[in-house]
Amino acid sequence: MHTKHFLATALAGLAAASPIRRADINTFELVAIKSGSPIQNSNIHASGSKFWIGKPTATYCPEQVGSNCPAGDQTAVSQGSSSNTLSMSVVVPGGQLVYVQTDGQVGYTIAHSASIPQGALTSPFEYTPPTDGEPLGSLTFNEKSFSACPTSDEGVYQIYANVDGFTRTDCIGILMGTSEFDETAAWEYT
């Protein structure tokens, strides 16, 4: 009897956590915009608690969730209509919050933790949805754009916000384009 009750409770929890998009939340993918650069129109991916161009999206879904897992092969973020913070588009309880470190590195919390690096900020992210006829919206942080900085791996760039503590000089300044995404993207990002 206890097993049936536990199973019913667990299944009800999965149903409640199913990847359904809420109307009051904007969910979108991130795209680098820099005309004439090698990264023009490149998708931005989450991996290792950072954002990248040229690295694949890294996600995890528990085996017991099975077919209820989102595909997990794309990176999307969400912002509530009255919020200036960003969260990863995930199902995992507690979510994953996006932050900007004092040196500009853009990252996200690990699942089941709200811990962010000392001095990191979670706002203000400003999302502007696409206007009629335009395919992309935009995202800024504290009214400033972002940069894509090369790494030691060829074709791989790490995303930074152009904050006061950002001092790298070998980067490509980008506009952060946004492309609407109609569902929850992953169980959790790793």
From TrEMBL:
Swiss-Prot/TrEMBL keywords: Signal
InterPro entries per record: PhiA_domain (IPR052820)
Domain of life where this protein originates: Eukaryota
Signal sequence, start to end: 1-17
Alphabetized PANTHER family for the sequence: PROTEIN, PUTATIVE (AFU_ORTHOLOGUE AFUA_6G03560)-RELATED
Protein name listed in UniProt: IgE-binding protein
Organism name: Amorphotheca resinae ATCC 22711
